[in-house]
Amino acid sequence: MDILGKIQLHREEERRLAWEGTFGEYLEILKERPYVAQSAHSRVYNMIKDAGIEEVNGTKKYNFFNNQIFGLEDSIERLVEEYFHPAAKRLDVRKRILLLMGPVSGGKSTIVTMLKRGLEDYSKTESGAVYAIKGCPMHEDPLHLIPHHLRDDFYREFGIRIEGSLSPLNTMRLEKEYGNCIEDVMVERIFFSEDKRTGIGTFSPSDPKSQDIADLTGSIDFSTIAEFGSESDPRAYRFDGELNKANRGMMEFQEMLKCDEKFLWHLLSLTQEGNFKAGRFALISADELIVAHTNESEYRSFIANKKNEALHSRIIVMGVPYNLRVSEEERIYEKMIKESDMSHVHIAPHALRVAAIFSVLTRLMDSKKQGMDLIKKMRLYDGEIVEGYNHIDLEELQKEFADEGMSGIDPRYVINRISSAIIRKEVPSINALDVLRSMKDGLDHHASITKEDKERFMNFISLARKEYDEIAKKEVQKAFVYSYEESAKTLMDNYLDNVEAYCNKNKLRDPLTGEEMSPDEKLMRSIEEQIGISENAKKAFREEILIRISAYARKGKKFDYNSHERLREAIQKKLFADLKDVVKITTSSKTPDEAQLKKVNEVIARLVDEHGYNTTSANELLRYVGSLLNR
Ligand SMILES: Nc1ncnc2c1ncn2[C@@H]1O[C@H](COP(=O)(O)OP(=O)(O)OP(=O)(O)O)[C@@H](O)[C@H]1O
Ligand SMILES: [Mg+2]
């Protein structure tokens, strides 16, 4: 459909969803769908829940955050289960300000933005519908109209608890416009929209000295005082602060701790009673989620100040550390690149992975665990199998440091360096080495890196480079074999036939001549030696493999190339060892002969067709691996 058609459809949809009626009619809606009277916190929680929750290895995965937030499952789970969930149940935490605390560009704003956009969409759905007193600048909850002394009766009839008092403005309107007939008060369905300042607000601090509380709670409209006669007439007040506008939904409080402390004290009654004070009026009940964010150093100095104690105890702090999993980090970069103007650039396979390895390394802390190093830790964190360690070790590692992930290289830095690598190159194609080089160069100009850190980081660059060397070699070698999987399988089958004959003291039959022959000791050893199996250990190794095969057979599972980790490694290494010379000569020859040239072109074609390279990056890869093998 073309864009004009879509716009029209959208308008029709808006018209279809719109509703307005009297308070009496609203009560009819409540009888059928009592959930529309839910609190703001409950709506946020249900929005997240309705998107679906999956449980993966004991960690809850919230689909709501899929595709935007990566590697923060634990933080998100805490956020939902320790804040949103209890808040939805009307527990006291909902009055507290939710403060996301984490390192720069670690995803705090992204989380908040997702909640905002999510609420906007959710308010257009059946289950997320919101109704408000018509014409109220704060979209006040219509149920506030029910007088306090009737609320128990209301609960008995509707099963809905009402919290909060009718605001000064609507108290006056009820009297003046509706002659105190509650049932006649007009109610409308509202749709959250940050642009229209309905139910979604954002507050960002300005200069602490001149910061005006009116930005939060609104101000007197001097032009109307004459009309209404007094400053304490609510009609002479503009309820247009962010707290007012965000009522029923959420308010983002950016960089909260940059505000002057006196300013923050205004928030005390809000965080205690769920009310705030505006102008010369009685307290106004607020039904909104307040999410603030800050970095660690500001947070530390905030809690170090005794004067802030009262406020501090009314804030719920949730850590949002950096992601520590390489594969997830890669996805962060992919997403950021897709959203940027670099999306047309060819990024060679593994370039983002190598960048991710580097940044994750800068975020990890050295474990005291025996034999553990950062690379192993990085692998374990990313769900890889590391010999000698299991999931218990992983859990211990994750618990070892409370503030792991609170420092290190941030995703924005990486993206900036990738884009400067792109600018430096003439062709719109960059590879892992370009990225690493650019990251390294950038460290010189990085403002917030100490000399010590810089040295550490340089070391991580070379670690990441080593990882890449291995990846690159494997990739090229694989591309040299006509069909890698096929060759590996043939070699393995051959090996297994020999092992079986060896262990059972049998002869083998030559498939061509039909002659009987002894097991090929040379072949078996050439494979076993690849993973350092000694002459003395070979028998045990071969028997172990046969046991594994029969265990598989018993369970009706097929034993294949991937069923035995070490055997797979041995086969792979053997294949590569056989290839090494061919690869070396072919890739490094300055004047390749015809056969070599043909091979190179074949390999490049395979890299392009099957491994995601383009011709530029495939050529670069071959040249690099050639130089590696000649070292
Ligand atoms: N864990 C993550 N998952 C997905 N994207 C992430 C993650 N961490 C950071 N990003 C991306 O990094 C960029 C910066 O993140 P964001 O602005 O949300 O960080 P922030 O914590 O608010 O930072 P700041 O403290 O600088 O305000 C965004 O493009 C965001 O999408
Ligand atoms: Mg931010």
TrEMBL record:
Alphabetized SMART domains for the sequence: AAA_PrkA
Domain PrkA AAA: 21-371
Gene3D superfamilies: P-loop containing nucleotide triphosphate hydrolases
Coiled coil, from the record: none
Stored InterPro entries: P-loop_NTPase (IPR027417), Prk_AAA (IPR013153), PrkA/YeaG (IPR016230), PrkA_C (IPR010650)
Keywords for the protein's UniProt record, in alphabetical order: Kinase, Transferase
Keyword Iron among UniProt keywords: no
Domain of life: Bacteria
Keyword flag Phosphoprotein: no
GO MF annotation terms: protein kinase activity
Membrane-spanning ranges: none
The name this protein goes by in its record: Putative serine protein kinase, PrkA
Annotated source species: Fictibacillus solisalsi
